[in-house]
Amino acid sequence: MSEVQPTKMNKVIHFLEKYFAPIAAKVEKQRHISSIKNGMIGLMAVLMIGSFSLIIMAIGNMFPEGSAIRTFFDQNHGIINMPFQFTFGLLSVYAAISISYHHARQMKIPFLHSMIGATLATLILNVKVVKGALDTSFLDSKGLFIAIIASLLTVEVMAFFIRRKITIRFKGLPDGIAQTFEALIPLFVVLMLAVIANASILYLTGGKNLPEAFTYFLAPTFDSIDTPYAIWLISFLEMLFWFIGLNGYAILVGFVLPFMTTYLAKNAAAFAAGEPIPHVFAPNFWDYFLGCTGSGVTGAIVILALFSKSKELRTIGKASSVPAIFTISEPVVFGLPIVYNPYLFIPFVFGTPTLGVLTYYVFKLGWVTPPIANVGGIPVPFAQYLATMDWRAFILTFAIIAAAVCMYYPFFKMYERSLVAKTKEKDERQQAFDKLDLDF
Amino acid sequence: MKITFDRLHILLVCNLGASTGVMVTKMKEIVQQSEKLKSIDIEIKAHPAGELEEHIQNFDVILVGPQIKHQFAHLSTIAKQYNKPIEVIDTQDYGTINGGNILKSAILLKLNADGGGLS
Known about the structure:
heterodimer; A: 440 residues; two-stranded antiparallel sheet; 73% helix; globular; B: 119 residues; alpha/beta; Rossmann fold; four-stranded parallel beta sheet; 5 helices; 44% helix; 19% strand
């Protein structure tokens, strides 16, 4: 079996190489998707510093009710909550800044006024005027999708005007001031478009603003990614990309991150309010549970490699163990290698999403609290703990790794056997070379 | 093992015949510098895999670039028709442009084919 299967697998691999790789390259380069991706990754910094107050709050909640420390935490709730409110609570604003920056960079137009324009459009579309005062309650994750679309459109409009030179230009002005004048017409157009869009939505929906209308009509779509099917499919595609040597996370995250961020914001808000956690598929679910120890739960392969019979595999295991603790999979993915390795295709590409769905149910059944905070750069298993603030996450982490070890074991052994045979073959070949007794 | 032949014409085939070109140059250099190969008529050329049938008769051994390994089954049926030994180049040797190793494996391939023919 170990002989037949890889040959059949080779056909699958050639198919992937031929049809799948070019699609991946195109998707990753598509300019809007790439701006969303880069912008949302930049936004992670805001989510991480905002998660800080959630973690502090969780620490306070560990103390019994009525104790001095708990009382102190409760009394100062407003202050402790402030970092959360000004980060998660204004997520749409930061998204507009971050995405428009990356999009302007990509479109090669001046950054500053593109970012001002995008923020302006986002604010107009997401903020309601109630009795003359600004109601900012839609600037959290509720306005996120509108912020993304508004930012991209704003930069496109600005680029349209600037490239066709439909701008005010005075000769001999210093660069900085000239750029300000140049931005006037496009900014005004953006402003007018946003106001008109906002007014028409308010008129058409009888007073609902865009985020309200959006959630009203698209609510089912919003929840649609937080399902076992979607998680399986996304993870499957990710692993397929990885298998052909492309960073699947980087290719897919542009589509998925806006949804995950929305879920995280809802989870965080629920946690801060002491309510049940509504979603599972937050960014840290992908980072630290679906991709525990690296996309494909590659830490399991590192463990198998560390105890391998083959010296070559042991060396790779040693080299990639520290990266695995920091959830970095590249050394083992390219070193073992896992990419284009027919022996590991089935567990890596089909096993990973299946494990991910099982993990989803562990959260869904309430056995472990889903991710409520967003952390990064923290080693396994502490990242899993901090993301959920639930000690059971430790157990889950080790359970995932143990399950992955079992899943990879038979396939890994097949690969190991072929490698040992190959090493032997190589030694024999070298001996034959030496027997030729040549002078090179 | 003694080299028992006095002629070895090696054909390298790859996708377009371009990527093995570097390898050919490297192997030729080695042949020129080698004292022990002086008495043997060695020729090395690279051609696209699609043209294998046009050129195969002029060569003694065929080496296939590892990047077109998937065509090996097809190429080896052609080689068999003309009774020429064929082999895929070791990926590592190919990647590191180890011309010496590839030359040695071509010699071994020829020796084994000749020996196999006698027994």
